[in-house]
Design goal:
With 463 residues, the chain is mainly α. The protein has 19 helices and two strands. Strands 1-2 form a two-stranded antiparallel sheet.
């Protein structure tokens, strides 16, 4: 086989040394090829992190960047050849040709998220280059390379969460009126509630715990560089969990978990439209108070599953995910708040144990599944059509994110400056469009007719 036909993955150490000299990295050929036996396969797997850390320990930043760039360029140039020779362009492991064809979904010219530009041979012998619209170009360590704020998506997510909270408040009014009679249906057997006495102040402590977690989360948002991506994820996940809670509350009405609760249905003298208006007013009271007892809101029937546990768990997971990894005390503190908040819910006998367990499980699983898909876009892109059907919100909100969102921080002043510039540009555009419409509206029609008549006169004079 001629040397030109050998793909980089099959290069020997001598060929790698020659390539390094051709690219101007000859001084590192001995280090890579003789000392560390780097052949073609090893060369394609080298990252910038490998170059600057032991055992290579290259200390010149410019050389690291240039060599890393040339290696990445070599990967891009050799992808088609690797696919044709039966190699996975990412792992460099061999696979059969039939596996490659079976792995491409019908209607999509895509095998792996690292194969960005792959030429497919058509039946007439021509070539067509297909670039998948959601191709992921994440860096070697999996972090996203392009992260746009897309504030409008954050506002859409906020609107979605806002609508869901209104629906939740209205459903809470309905289930309160459907709560089973406490005399006829006593509290169900529960391992925790039957063995732990009722603590009157415990439920208030749970809500103060949640308030503290919320303040910590707001602080993280203020300093995080990608705060708008975090916001839309938080609103999207919270809205989805609470929408699911609306369904579970409506399906089955559990009996009241504690005899201390005053859970009598609200009877309205109005009927029809008047009853609906009355329920809307009660729903507004619940929504305004965020469903919290410290705000004077008391409801029954909304047991399966615990909304307080959802809020505590969601805040805890977002704080631990997007705060610096080395602040272990903060992560431990938020987990303790989460666990103590759950304990206070049960100690107050406001929910059954199953309500709290299901709420924690659903919230944590949904958070982990969402972020697993977002951080590994190839999982989503191998079956894009099905993902759009089953995860429409995820597909919409994460279309501009191509990897892990790094935990980078900046001063909140920068955020306010950007918001000011954005609002200023929007205002100027609105004023410009308004002025343009006014100009069109008040242009006298006589001027146009006069111009036409003068044009006709000049034509006659010329004739």
């Amino acid at each position: 086989m001629e040397e030109s036909e050998v793909v980089p993955v099959e290069w020997s150490c001598e060929k790698v040394a020659n390539w390094l000299k051709e690219k101007g990295h000859g001084k590192y050929s001995s280090l890579l090829c003789k000392e560390h036996k780097v052949d073609g396969r090893a060369l394609l797997l080298i990252t910038e992190s490998d170059l600057k850390t032991p055992p290579l320990n290259i200390n010149v930043l410019g050389d690291i960047k240039r060599l890393g760039l040339d290696i990445r360029q070599l990967k891009v140039e050799s992808r088609q050849a690797l696919m044709e020779r039966g190699y996975d362009p990412h792992t460099l492991l061999p696979f059969s040709k039939s596996y490659v064809m079976d792995a491409v979904p019908q209607g999509y010219h895509r095998f792996d998220d690292y194969v960005y530009n792959y030429r497919l041979h058509t039946t007439d012998g021509s070539e067509s280059e297909c670039v998948h619209p959601h191709s992921s170009r994440s860096s070697d360590d999996g972090h996203a390379t392009t992260l746009r704020p897309e504030m409008w998506k954050a506002f859409i997510a906020l609107t979605y969460c806002f609508v869901v909270t209104w629906i939740t408040a209205f459903v809470m009014v309905i289930v309160h009126d459907r709560v089973p009679d406490m005399k006829k249906y006593p509290p169900l057997p529960d391992i925790f509630l039957d063995n732990v006495p009722h603590i009157p102040w415990a439920f208030h402590m749970c809500e103060w715990t949640g308030t503290l977690l919320l303040l910590i989360w707001v602080s993280v948002l203020l300093f995080h560089k990608h705060r708008f991506i975090l916001l839309r994820r938080f609103f999207a996940l919270s809205g989805t969990v609470f929408l699911l809670r609306c369904i579970t509350m409506l399906i089955t009405s559990l009996s009241v978990p504690g005899t201390h609760l005053d859970c009598n249905p609200r009877y309205s003298e109005d009927a029809g439209f008047g009853d609906l208006i009355s329920k809307m007013k009660e729903a507004y009271v619940i929504w305004k108070g965020a469903g919290m007892s410290i705000q004077g809101v008391r409801t029954c029937g909304d047991y399966m599953f615990s909304g307080h546990t959802v809020a505590l768990t969601m805040l805890n997971f977002f704080i631990t995910e997007y705060s610096p990894r080395d602040i272990y005390l903060l992560h431990t503190f938020t987990w303790l708040l989460n666990m103590f908040g759950i304990f206070f819910i049960l100690s107050g006998h406001e929910h059954y144990s199953i309500d709290v367990f299901i709420a924690f499980y659903i919230t944590s699983r949904l958070f982990l599944y969402y972020h697993t898909l977002a951080n590994n876009q190839s999982l989503m892109q191998r079956d894009t059509g099905r993902t759009r059907i089953w995860f429409p919100l995820f597909t919409f909100f994460e279309s501009g994110v191509d990897g892990i969102v790094p935990n980078e921080y900046e001063s909140p002043v920068v955020m306010f400056e950007r918001l000011f510039k954005f609002s200023k540009s929007v205002t100027m555009r609105i004023l410009f469009l308004f002025q343009a419409n006014l100009t069109k509206k008040f242009v006298p029609p006589e001027s146009t007719t006069t111009s036409h008549s003068s044009g006709k006169r000049t034509k006659r004079k010329v004739q």
